[in-house]
Specification:
The structure is a single chain. By secondary structure, this protein is of the alpha+beta class. The chain has two helices and nine strands.
């Protein structure tokens, strides 16, 4: 083995060791929820039909995975993290937890520019446990937009905002 090969091999070994040392340590596994917390959720799941759905997430989203059989199917895989260009389609991706036998037809997604409601879309949520849906909108004007999830006439369950630029 010549000196050049030896130097190259040594450099590769040392750089591999340096990379291995820079890797962050694995985070410890999170403990399970407490028994009381699990019992509370199970009680809601089994007996909470009249309490309504629990909104878990509302995310302004560029892309929802619709590939059949994908492990992330029906999940927002490109959340909006900065301004979007005027004319871009934005998805209001929402995730609910629904109790057994729950069916909620009094829900709507509102798109607001500033404080002005620009579009309202009715949604129905039903099923057991996690339920996800999304609605698309193409904001026609620049400014700060807010997506709200409303139940009934005016009960706001949650909101999320994003900015549209020219």
């Amino acid at each position: 083995m010549n000196l050049q090969h030896l130097a190259t091999s040594a450099a590769l070994v040392l750089s591999s060791l340096a990379l291995a040392q820079e890797a962050p340590p694995a985070a410890p596994a999170q403990p399970p929820p407490s028994a009381d917390e699990i019992k509370r959720v199970l009680d809601y799941q089994d007996n909470g039909k009249d309490r309504g759905p629990a909104l878990l997430d509302i995310i302004p989203c560029n892309k929802v995975d619709q590939a059949k059989g994908s492990p992330t199917q029906f999940t927002c895989i490109e959340p909006i993290t900065g301004p979007v260009k005027k004319g871009s389609t934005v998805n209001a991706w929402v995730q609910f937890f629904c109790p057994k036998d729950g069916k909620y037809e009094d829900l709507k997604i509102q798109w607001l520019l500033g404080s002005e409601v620009r579009q309202t879309t009715d949604i129905t949520v039903q099923g057991l446990a996690r339920t996800r849906t999304w609605r698309a909108h193409t904001p026609p004007k620049a400014g700060k937009w807010t997506i709200k999830v409303i139940q009934g006439e005016s009960k706001e369950l949650g909101s999320a905002s994003f900015t549209v630029e020219n």
